[in-house]
Amino acid sequence: MVWRNLLISYAAVILSFLGAVYWGVAMIVKEMPIKKRNVMLSWSVIPSIVAWIGLLIPQVYGLIVMSIFFVISFFMDMQLMKSEAKPTWYLPLRFQLTVVVTTCLVTAAYLVKPVLINV
Q1: Entry's Pfam families (predicted)?
Q2: pTM
Q3: Residues 117, 20: contact at Cβ < 8 Å?
């Protein structure tokens, strides 16, 4: 259905954007230890890879994988924000958005009609 295609595509774009936050922080914070910078730069590409895979696999699994990864990304943001300066609004907003997006993705996955294979 068209609405599921739009939802999963939009989710993939937003998940990729969340990875970009880490790239930006790694570039801006000058006094960051090189090991931590490398971890952040490495992590920054993982959400977009997961999103891409989520678009390639059967849609019901892609919706589930992306919903799980939005939650994982939120917990990574919590870890990041413990050690870096952050706006006070960021984590509460991320939490609200994570709840909304995972609810939408899980609901869409639930509504996908399973394909029955006749053997």
Answers
A1: DUF3429
A2: 0.86
A3: no
In the numeric block, which tokens belong to residue 34?
A: 């090189």
Task: Tell me the per-residue pLDDT of 83-115, one tens digit each, with 9 for 90 and over.
Answer: 766 788 989 999 999 999 999 999 999 988 665
Domain hosting residue 61, numbered range: 2-111
Distance in angstroms (rounded) separating the CA atoms of residues 59 and 43: 24
List, for residues 11-65, the tens digit of each pLDDT value: 999 999 999 988 988 888 888 889 989 998 999 999 999 999 999 999 999 999 9
Residue 31 lies in a domain: yes
For the chain, the domain total comes to 1
d(CA 102, CA 97) in angstroms, rounded, equals 8
Residue 116 has pLDDT above 60, yes or no: no
